[in-house]
Design a protein that fits this description.
The chain is an alpha/beta fold and about 325 residues long. It folds into two domains: about 5-220, P-loop containing nucleotide triphosphate hydrolases (Rossmann fold, 3-Layer(aba) Sandwich); about 225-295, Alpha-Beta Plaits (2-Layer Sandwich), CATH 3.30.70. It has ten helices and 14 strands. The chain has helices at about 45-50, 75-80, 95-105, 110-120, 135-150, 165-180, 195-200, 220-225, 270-280, 295-310; strands spanning about 5-15, 20-30, 35, 60-65, 65-70, 80-85, 155-160, 185-190, 205-210, 210-215, 225-235, 250, 260-265, 285-295. It binds adenosine-5'-triphosphate and magnesium ion.
């Protein structure tokens, strides 16, 4: 597998003694969209800052396209674009000049047509002569994205790009992300909107308390940890679950009108056939049957909770 970023045994202890990253190992594959999920304070921004060279690491090593991001930071940095979590842009500069200047900082040749395309893609073209202080928060975030793309990076880090932006911008942003991916850009994003990660990511990494809890293909993760539920609606309400069904993980709704069966998608056989047979033997008539599958969000919450109970030293939520 061709890895574009390789993070090996990286730890970060901030000046105040706080260990924000603990022996992190993570390989990022060329061309993938990796979603980095974790609760507030998990270390997501610290990890991104370490790769992008904004914070220095305490131990370990990071290579970016083969370049050591400390010893060869110029080369490493030149192929990275970063959309930071915090809105950090000047006030009086215009949109156009900011984006042009950022491209220049990376020593890239002028390319007004490319910059125009970015600004158009981000619906910023009609604001190009506006000073940044005249823009709304969501528009400023678009400018940050335009800046991050201005030097045609191969790797784009998006740290909470959709925090506090409206639905429309969020859609624009995801469209842009998939276009960039199509053009071969590797994308690492953090988000608290897990359903977005679920939709867009190829792989998902979960970080908590400075440790990577898992990294997995999204589809496999969902298949592995996903639980399904079968909901059986009854013709007439039951007052209790029949004894004969005690082996199944069942719950009866409060009104007695439906039974929910929770089963793992990886177990050998789901047990549904047997359950349905026993239901009918118990004299329960079915009105309807439906299934639901746990989302990435459910999986994520379970994982972080499990770590909190098994690792009392760890950072709590
Ligand atoms: N400069 C710093 N000095 C000391 N501690 C810091 C510093 N920056 C971050 N931390 C701590 O490191 C931990 C990880 O912070 P980080 O910003 O990486 O979290 P995050 O996962 O990005 O959280 P969020 O979802 O809130 O953005 C937190 O406990 C934070 O308080
Ligand atoms: Mg953060």
């Amino acid at each position: 597998m061709d890895n574009i970023v390789s993070i090996k045994d990286v730890s970060k202890v901030y000046d105040n003694g706080f260990a924000a990253l603990k022996n992190v190992d993570l390989d990022i594959r060329r061309g993938e969209i990796l979603a980095l999920l974790g609760p507030n304070g998990a270390g997501k921004t610290t990890l991104i800052s370490a790769v992008t060279g904004i914070v220095s690491i305490s131990s370990g090593s990071i290579t970016v396209d083969g370049f050591d991001n400390v010893k060869q930071y110029r080369q490493a940095r030149s192929i990275i674009g970063l959309v930071p979590q915090e809105l950090t842009i000047g006030a009086f500069e215009t949109v156009w000049n900011t984006v042009r200047f950022t491209r220049g900082l990376f020593g890239k040749k002028k390319n007004p047509a490319y910059l125009e395309k970015i600004l158009r893609d981000l619906s910023l073209w009609d604001k190009k002569d506006n000073q940044l202080r005249m823009l709304s928060g969501g528009m400023k975030r678009r400018v940050l994205i335009a800046k991050a793309l201005s030097h045609e990076p191969d790797i784009l880090f998006l740290d909470e790009p959709t925090a506090g932006v409206d639905v429309e911008l969020r859609k624009d942003m995801w469209r842009l992300v998939s276009d960039l991916r199509e053009s071969g850009v590797t994308i690492i994003l953090t988000t608290h909107y897990i359903e977005e990660a679920e939709e867009i990511a190829d792989r998902v990494a979960v970080i908590n308390g400075g440790e990577i809890l898992l990294i997995e293909d999204k589809a496999e993760l969902m298949a592995k940890l996903g639980k399904k539920q079968l909901i059986v609606e009854l013709k007439s309400p039951a007052s209790a679950l029949p004894e004969s069904l005690a082996d199944y993980d069942l719950s009866l709704s409060e009104d007695g009108g439906s039974i929910t069966y929770t089963y793992s998608t990886t177990a050998d056989g789901t047990g549904i056939t047997g359950l349905l047979q026993r239901l009918s033997e118990a004299g329960l008539m079915l009105k309807d049957i439906s299934t639901t599958q746990s989302s990435l969000e459910d999986i994520f919450v379970d994982l972080v909770k499990a770590q909190a109970t098994t690792d009392p030293e760890g950072d709590s939520l």
